[in-house]
Write a structure and sequence with these properties.
mainly alpha
Length: about 230
């Protein structure tokens, strides 16, 4: 399904102006999560590509690409078998890349619990570069928004929601959405406000944060920020 971010924001703004606040989250909440996840995946993909590019001389590169092709063709079990072999026998960056890709294939299969566990395991492995660990933690955190509690999301990614961290914008948004989903509007407001207050927040993330702040204000369940 094609998705246009500008038209999405425009339609949401129209919905806000018509005071149908409760309907906004019901209609668009899942899309908000999906769009934000795509951004996280893109950021994580850049980190992983850089990691792969630094180690691409390995002779297992063709095997990794073949495994990715199987995954792209939704031959999930075959892809997992190939990735498992790479994790055990691959050289250079490929064992780590195979673990990350295998966790993504678990999502494709619908086994979200296995994917979360795999990403969490990667995030805790100090033998893996910090940027890749953070990418894995972010993937786990976003999956937990719909499949876990606010506390679980916080445990996975709150440490990245700090100034200077490359993933801070995505981490704050995930935490805000998790708090909103849990009904903790005051906490959700704090996270979305931190996005708005950060001059370096990407425009699309800031736009969604503004929208969520409007929803929270309209709900009457959290006081508006004092300017």
């Amino acid at each position: 399904m094609a998705f246009n971010d500008d038209s999405f924001i425009r339609e949401v703004n129209e919905e806000l102006r018509s005071d149908q606040m409760k309907g906004v989250w019901r209609r668009f909440g899942r899309y908000i999560v999906v769009v934000a996840i795509l951004i996280v995946v893109g950021t994580a993909g850049k980190v992983l590509y850089d990691y792969w590019d630094d180690n691409r001389s390995s002779g297992t590169g063709d095997q990794f690409l073949a495994a990715m092709k199987l995954a792209d063709e939704n031959k999930n079990d075959e892809a997992l078998a190939a990735l498992d072999k790479l994790e055990k026998e691959g050289h250079g960056a490929y064992p780590v890349l195979a673990r990350m890709r295998a966790a993504t294939v678990q999502v494709q299969k619908g086994d979200t619990a296995a994917a979360i566990a795999a990403f969490n395991e990667i995030g805790k492995d100090n033998a893996i570069p910090a940027a890749v660990r953070d990418a894995a933690k972010m993937r786990a955190g976003w999956l937990l928004i719909e499949n876990g509690t606010y506390e679980q999301v916080s445990a996975a990614i709150e440490e990245m929601a700090v100034p200077g961290n490359a993933f801070r914008h995505s981490a704050r948004e995930a935490l805000g959405l998790a708090a909103y989903k849990a009904g903790n509007m005051a906490q959700a407001r704090q996270w979305f406000q931190s996005i708005v207050d950060d001059a370096d927040s990407p425009r699309n993330v800031a736009n969604r944060a503004h929208m969520m702040l409007d929803l929270i204000t309209a709900s009457g369940k959290a006081p508006a920020a004092q300017g």
